[in-house]
Design brief:
Largest sheet: 8 strands, mixed
Strand content: 5-15%
Number of helices: 21
Strand order of the largest sheet: 1-2-4-3-5-6-7-8
Radius of gyration: 27 Å
Length: about 425
Amino acid sequence: MDNDQFLSTPDESMTVGRSADLLGHHQRHATSRGPRGAAQFARLMHRDPDQALAVVRSSSPQMGEWLLGGAFAGPLSGSDLTMAQRELATVAVLAALGDTGAQLAMHVGAALGQGITATELRAVAEHVSVYAGFPRALNALAVIDRVLREAGADVPPALRQVLLSDHVTTVAHAGTSGPPVVLVHALGLDWRMWEPVLADLAVGRTVYAYDLRGHGSAAEAAPPSSMTDLAIDLFDVMNALGLDRAHLVGLSYGGGIVQTAATIDRDRFASMTLMATTNVAFEAFEGRARSIEDQGMAAQVAPSLVRWFTADALAVNGWGVRYARDAVLRHDPEHAAAAWRAFKTIDVKGRNRGFGAPTLVLAGESDASTTPQVMSGIAADIAGAQYAEMPGTPHMPTLERPELVVKALNAFLPRESGGGMSSNAGD
């Protein structure tokens, strides 16, 4: 056999025949996998494929079969990405491609069905602006916002940068009128810890949440040396917002800051709400600081999340758990250790006994860190304080049981209504 036979072009009829056979095989294979693809479409998209693809099938039945038997029975059905991850990736790709409004809207709805939040979807558009340009990102954001409005999602809070004595922080603001409420977050998190309750609390109120020194957007601030430093920051935030008095709400570390602020200037308080907090330092605080210094932030994820959430919430892995896990990993170790040592300086037991303003002490029934026993002791230490427990609730109630937080705070805090001011805690 000469070399020309190896170099010659195959017979054209044979090539065409083989191509036709291969195409027929793929078509039959896609058709046979159609039921599997339809089931995956329903799981992933949260829509009936017969209804969702009716227009496609009426125009091209073959394309409808290929879509289900090919894409949805094939690469879109693998377990290498979760369904939520697939939808978030699809939203990003469609946003980057541009001119995909109908498909983007469908997949934004599917992402919501997979537990992706409005905040995460808007963040995807912001991320796309870096890599695909502002025009495509803005067009995608318009589609995302339209789908979110149709789904009844909350309008995101307004954000502003505020200059304090030695650093800049971010303040989130929701609500247009009514008594002012300032929310102070927990150690290791940032203002977004309050996001699940912001919109509901802002009905008839103006609600603010800010990033503490060493957290979130204020990560470059000098670390605090004491709870007094953080209490002074709180008053600086109020001054920057033009608030002489406000209803102050603190959770955990934030509750310690609020209590410390009350010992400095109680006239700035219209009321005080304390959640999942303490009025004395725990021995564990120094141990956590040392663990951060010795082992880093990754080693803090498991013990933190186990303290903060119930086993059920960890298994579901919803937005609150995902956000908290990421916040712990992002936290600068120097700032995290300094925060625990600042928390060690809390010294308010017995010092707010004559506080005077209305006070709510709100405990989680299932909080293993600041137990109902700890919280009821705080309430007993403040004359006239109300005490309440949220059933089945762990240490991070806004991230696991936001509806119970809203219910308790709506019953305690005053709000503006159509006929004037409703009076609960004060004005």
